[in-house]
Write a structure and sequence with these properties.
Keywords: Membrane, Transmembrane, Transmembrane helix. The chain is α+β, with helices and mostly antiparallel strands. It is built from three helices and seven strands; from the N terminus they run αββαβββαββ.
Length: 135
């Protein structure tokens, strides 16, 4: 079950405080619904969460083409003009997304995200939905 959004605040703030350059952090469900955010405005976080659903689906399709892969997306890093976008699997049907500026070091970011997911991954889960309802 998803914890209340307020319970995520300190976890996401800890990540933001630990890596310079973070602009926004979003926890989202596999179907692109925002579960929690830190930084940025709610509308931007919702748009990022929706876009992440497409990115994780595309990454999963690419992963299936690699012999021996289970087809699951683990981490996507995209360098964009002015910074980086990170998307990491973070529990059953949940993902952790980060937008950061150029000050952010990609290796440090992915390590800190992985540490956060390992510590709280059980809390970053989203039950599957069918027709907008939890199954």
């Amino acid at each position: 079950m998803i914890q209340q959004r307020a319970n995520f605040d300190w976890m996401l703030k800890e990540l933001a405080d630990g890596v310079p350059g973070i602009e926004m952090i979003v926890v989202l469900s596999a179907d692109g619904l925002r579960i929690a955010r830190y930084g940025g405005d709610p509308d931007s976080a919702d748009r990022l969460a929706a876009a992440c659903a497409g990115v994780q689906s595309l990454a999963g399709a690419v992963a299936q083409e690699l012999p021996g892969s289970d087809g699951d997306m683990k981490l996507v890093v995209i360098e964009i003009d002015g910074g980086y976008f990170y998307l990491m699997a973070a529990g059953a049907n949940a993902y952790l997304a980060v937008l950061a500026d150029v000050v952010c070091e990609p290796g440090r970011m992915s390590n800190r995200m992985r540490d956060l997911v390992l510590r709280i991954g059980a809390h970053l889960t989203s039950p599957p939905r069918r027709n907008g309802q939890t199954v």
